[in-house]
Amino acid sequence: MRSTIFLPLVALLLGTVMGAEPAAAASLGRYEVFGVDDGDMLKMRGGPGTGYIVIVGLPNGTALRVHSCEQTGGTRWCRVSLERARGLKGYVSWAYLRKI
Questions:
Q1: Which DSSP symbol is given to 49?
Q2: Beta bridge partners of 58
Q3: What is the 3-state secondary structure (H, E, C) of 65-76?
Q4: DSSP state of 99
Q5: pTM for this one?
Q6: Which of 1, 12, 29, 93 is the most exposed, fewest CB within 10 Å of its CB?
């Protein structure tokens, strides 16, 4: 009797906790490219590191949606999508992002 009530309760609790986490982590919010030298662009890459291909260059002021971030070596890389073209996704360095 005890396990009949306990197991579904644990499953419900785990489902609630596990289900809430991905939704909250789905997006860290809106950011813009900031601090790139004049005449240069922030490189959006295919993966979290300089060894990945460059997808596109982003000038200062480009609006992005940050989905997640991870530390790779000495750089924090964020998985982003363009605000105006959400299908275009890649990784950029956190150092050049500012919350908007």
A1: S
A2: 42
A3: EEEEEEEECCEE
A4: E
A5: 0.72
A6: 1
One-letter amino acid of 70: E
What is the total residue count of the chain? Answer: 100
- As a whole number of angstroms, the distance between CA 75 and CA 55 comes to 19
Q: What is the CATH number of domain 26-99?
A: 2.30.30.40
3-state secondary structure of 23: helix
pLDDT tens, residue by residue, 2-13: 444 444 443 443
Q: CA–CA separation, 14 vs 56, rounded Å?
A: 40
Strands of 75-82's sheet in order across: 54-58, 42-45, 89-93, 75-82, 63-72, 29-33, 97-99
Question: Tokens in use for 39?
Answer: 């005449």
Residue 82 in contact with residue 63, Cβ under 8 Å?
A: yes
